[in-house]
Specification:
The protein is α/β, with parallel strands linked by helices. The protein contains 13 helices and 15 strands. It is globular, with a radius of gyration of 19 Å.
Length: 307
């Protein structure tokens, strides 16, 4: 039985699936969080990172689960100056009073044009150009020190993008390997453009870290319409911004709804759409071609390591 068949078997059967979620800590105790929210039992750190903003987005039915991710972001060992949630104007009616009550803890809801997953970063980066912006995903539960570890590495490497979850871009015989074959969630001390940062683990963008086209809607909608990670990676690459990882990266991920993430229930994720249909490879090449970056030159740059 190959790896894919084994995974399918595990997810198909209730007992093996629940055991996988439990042992791998993929599942979060939502009832416990609901109880803590109901009675206001949140742990608010006294240490505030004034130059740091956490930014995220959500949409549609996923907004109903957003409180769990926000709970984990509020209960950090250090806290950002703000937690900004960008919601499309058409989804504004889905933001309930229960969610708005979290504004007491530094959460701010803002409403903007629907540019899909790109609204996780672009509106906030445009408004707060002198701040570090940390993007997170709306379907994840973050460990209490995930922010602290990002920030500690930022202090060491202030001009670099810092990401917990990194894939390694690989190649064979001067050809890029398909995205699905890249080593996932690696731990590395190397600073290289091989480090492809993946948004679900949290990504810290220092000020002025992205190329001037980062907010060009016409371009990202044309080249990478469903792959914000690829677009922001190339905006870093074009800007000469290096990518590094915290000393102790958080690469064990806790999902608010693992059933959706693993395709057990209905509701596709961008990962399923991009990887399953090889859309990431197509969008990756779109950017290379648009900016006239040859695969050969790109691979040469991948092989360079930096201090």
């Amino acid at each position: 039985m190959n790896k894919q068949d084994l995974r399918s078997f595990v997810l198909k059967h209730v007992i093996t699936r629940e055991l996988f979620f439990f042992v791998g800590q993929r599942k979060v105790n939502l009832k416990k969080i609901d109880k803590r929210l109901k009675f206001g039992k949140l742990s608010i750190s006294d240490v505030v990172l004034e130059d740091c903003i956490i930014s995220l987005t959500s949409y549609g039915s996923r907004i109903a689960e957003l409180r769990y991710t926000l709970f984990s972001l509020i209960n950090q060992s250090v806290r950002p100056s703000q937690i900004i949630v960008n919601i499309a104007l058409n989804d504004k009616h889905l933001v309930t009073d229960d969610l708005l009550s979290l504004e007491t803890y530094g959460v701010i809801f803002k409403y903007c044009e629907d540019i899909r997953s790109f609204k996780k970063l672009i509106p906030v980066m445009e408004e707060y150009r002198d701040k570090c912006i940390i993007t997170v995903d709306d379907d994840m539960y973050y460990d209490a020190d995930f922010l602290k570890s990002l920030w500690e590495k930022h202090i060491q490497k202030p001009n670099m993008i810092v990401a917990h979850n990194i894939y390694e871009i690989t190649f064979t015989d001067n050809k890029l390997n398909t995205y699905s074959l890249w080593p996932h969630s690696i731990i590395t001390k190397k600073i290289s453009y091989k480090n492809f940062f993946v948004g679900c683990g949290g990504v810290l963008y220092p000020p002025n870290s992205l190329y001037k086209d980062y907010n060009c809607k016409q371009l990202f909608q044309q080249l990478t319409p469903i792959a914000d990670d690829i677009w922001f990676y190339f905006m870093a690459y074009m800007n000469g911004t290096k990518i590094t990882q915290p000393d102790k990266p958080k690469i064990r991920f806790h999902y608010i709804n693992p059933y959706r993430e693993y395709g057990v229930t209905e509701g596709k994720t961008l990962t399923q759409e991009n990887v399953g249909l090889c859309k990431n490879d197509e969008q990756f090449m779109n950017v290379l071609n648009y900016y006239n970056i040859s695969v050969e030159d790109f691979i040469k740059n991948l092989q360079i390591e930096y201090d």
